[in-house]
Specification:
16 helices; 361 residues; 12 strands; alpha/beta; binds ligand FNR
Length: 361
């Protein structure tokens, strides 16, 4: 005999959003390191610039960011998270950085859930706001997701490892490539193929580019670990599975290499670095490896929810991030992102070994 009220599918989905936040707050990054310790920039002892004139702004998706940073997709889809999105969007607007919303599937199913996403556009009317759907979303639904928040781009999250870790996850991925190509053909804004923490190999990047993808968020391993999050939701701990994936430094090198190999000289792949990027130093290394913009999710969420004055804590974190970028630009004598991107970097240790075995120069 059942005791208590029956939980509907909607309750279960809404609970899942809250579980993800709770688990993300309690888990450490990893267990695979993000790889940036193995990436070293070369110090310049004799710079000839004024560090106060360094320009770290970047033009992205037709707008200008004051620094190359996005708050990556986190949440939406239940009234309990509306305030999280509202506060993050307010911070993004003030800092002049971009923000993505979490998966909009809930609002596509139930218009009552739209508000939890729309607050992001309301709080950030002129900045970069990015929509987010799963790879099975039909074109008309994806367009609704874009219109819901007047998005500047659409992230399509490629989260196969998470689905396989979830008891209730999808098991059939046959239509992902074909549907992704459809979304690129018919959506009115750029489509970003986005991993969520297991990375993109160069072979996958090549397949994505063949499908028409021109924006890849590499979502490497080393930060928020969705396999671990799903395992904890099931009361499990599976070390081997949780160590699955390509680290962020490695996936950046792989994807950047595939772009140089795969595209014509007049075509361009825009790479977004994410997965365990926790400070400006690591973001700087990601730009030296070929990324245009860095994106962070877990660390921002932790700052927002783990302290009594969460909003101020995120603002301070972003300001430190900005200062770290300026120092790394100064110490490499780079007056802007374009000059910084030309900086040589050394690749050591495990990342070097991985790339050597993969034949990536
Ligand atoms: C996420 N992430 C995510 N990504 C996505 O594309 N759609 C989503 O709905 C969510 N939901 C979500 C919830 C929570 C609580 C977190 C912490 C993250 C993944 C996120 O955008 C990012 O790809 C990964 O978290 C890796 O980056 P970090 O967290 O290591 O900086």
């Amino acid at each position: 005999m059942r005791t208590g009220p029956r939980r509907t599918r909607v309750d279960i989905r809404q609970q899942r959003k809250l579980d993800h936040i709770r688990q993300a707050l309690s888990l450490e990054d990893g267990p695979i390191p993000n790889g940036f310790k193995d990436v070293r920039l070369i110090h310049e002892a004799l710079p000839n610039l004024d560090s106060r004139d360094i320009d770290i702004s970047v033009s992205f998706l037709g707008k200008t960011l004051t620094m190359p940073l996005l708050i990556n997709a986190i949440t939406g889809g239940t009234p309990q998270v509306t305030d999280i999105n509202r506060r993050l969007a307010r911070i993004a607007a003030k800092a002049g950085i971009g923000i993505a919303v979490g998966s909009q599937a809930a609002a596509l199913r139930d218009p009552a859930m739209r508000e939890s996403y729309q607050v992001v556009r309301e709080e950030n009317p002129d900045g970069i706001v990015i929509a987010n759907v799963n790879p099975n979303t039909p074109v008309d639904q994806a367009i609704k997701a874009i219109e819901m928040i007047q998005a500047d781009a659409l992230q399509v999250h490629l989260n196969v490892a998470q689905e396989m870790a979830m008891a209730e996850g999808d098991r059939d991925f046959r239509h992902w490539p074909e549907n992704l190509a459809e979304l690129i053909r018919h959506c009115p804004v750029p489509v970003i193929a986005k991993e969520v923490g297991n990375g993109v190999s160069f072979e996958t990047a090549e397949r994505l580019m063949e499908l028409g993808v021109r924006y890849i968020d590499v979502g490497g391993a080393g930060g928020t670990n969705f396999i671990a999050i799903e395992m904890r939701r099931r009361g499990l701990e599976l070390q081997e599975f949780e160590a699955w994936g390509i680290s962020s430094a490695v996936t950046l090198a792989e994807v950047a290499w595939s772009a140089s190999d795969c595209l014509r000289s007049d075509e361009k792949l825009t790479i977004i670095a994410s997965g365990g990027i926790r400070n400006g130093w690591e973001a700087a290394k990601s730009f030296a490896l070929g990324a245009k913009v860095a994106a962070v999710a877990g660390s921002v969420l932790k700052h927002l929810l783990s302290s009594s004055d969460g909003e101020q804590s995120v603002v301070k974190y972003i300001e430190e991030f900005r200062q770290e970028l300026i120092v790394s630009f100064t110490l490499t004598n780079s007056s802007n992102l374009d000059t910084f991107a030309q900086q040589p970097c050394l690749i050591l240790g495990e990342v070097k070994e991985w790339l050597e075995q993969r034949g990536i120069p």
